[in-house]
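Before a computer can learn anything about folding, someone has to put a protein's shape into writing. The outcome of that step, for a single protein, is printed below:
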Amino acid sequence: MKTPKYTTKIEKIHGLDDNEGVALKEVTKKFAFRANEYYLDLIDWDDSHDPIRRIIIPDVRELEEWGQLDASDENAYTRVPGLQHKYKSTAVLLITDVCGGYCRFCFRKRLFIDGHDEISRDVAGGIGYIRAHKEISNILITGGDPLMLSTNKLETIIRELREIDHVKILRIGTKIPAFNPYRILDDPSLLEMVRKYSTPEKKIYVMTQFNHPAELTDVAIAAVHSLIRAGAIIANQTPVLRGVNDDPSVLSLLLKKLSFIGAAPYYVFQCRPTAGNKTFAVPVEETYEIFQQSITDCAGLAKRARLIMSHSTGKIEIAGMTDQHIFFRYHQSADPAQIGSFVVFKRNPGAYWFDDYHEIVARYPES
């Protein structure tokens, strides 16, 4: 297949009637729209609740006032433009503001809220910061989507990072295997680049984002397999999303299929309370129940996923629940002393985020 055409014009989408196009254009004035013909062709337009449609097509409910544009306070951890350093050994390098499609639930929609067309960022400052901070061993290359860059531009960044001795792990965060797997299959130079820089002692991880089993098409699976053959390690992340994967049987099928193809389930996220995301949000305690039911039918490799909230203070695992209490564990933290600590709250069925819990029962270790 030739490179699929991209569109940012919601009124041009053939599956929408004229009235829908007009109404949704109002949404795109606030939150940008972008998609491509490959991904749009996955939609069953006769099903108004189609999960792929939910992921990519705007919804008027996005205009409901709710949440914040920077729900995890990433700005507080930005050390130089495009470089976040929140956890001691890990830095996040944002190298582009453009994606293969704009997920309607994106937590970084602030980066392309005006429909930015500039693909590449100046990353010199970020790489300089990484070079100067020898405690950083792990880099997440993200954006936007790094695979929207040409392979030449991406390889320049990868090469510079590989020249820094203390950087051991490179992670590429991408939804391109779901949005446009032909970007991978039709570019042998991309696979050669992975083969070159994913070495026995310093691997490249490709962090995919498959949100629903329908995205795991034959061609998407082939793209994942090509990356694995080139030497990449694949791990998948997804939030739990209302109307997409909030059915335990759907989430279970997703986790199982990912494990079958070698894309290890990594994090399952609580949907962040980002502006425009109320239509996708599932309360924390319902998310926990969905997740627990989903892994009941999974074998060990599919059970490895952790249920996580990416809170401003750290990655907080939703670790357990009783009739009265909910248990949280700091899987990672901006404060190293907090890593591994437990916090117990009285349950709040209406809570969408950690900050919605106020009645603390216990903290271990005690502060």
User: Anything to note?
Assistant: Residues 28 and 58 are 7 Å apart (CA to CA). The first strand starts at residue 6 and ends at 7. The mean pLDDT is 95.
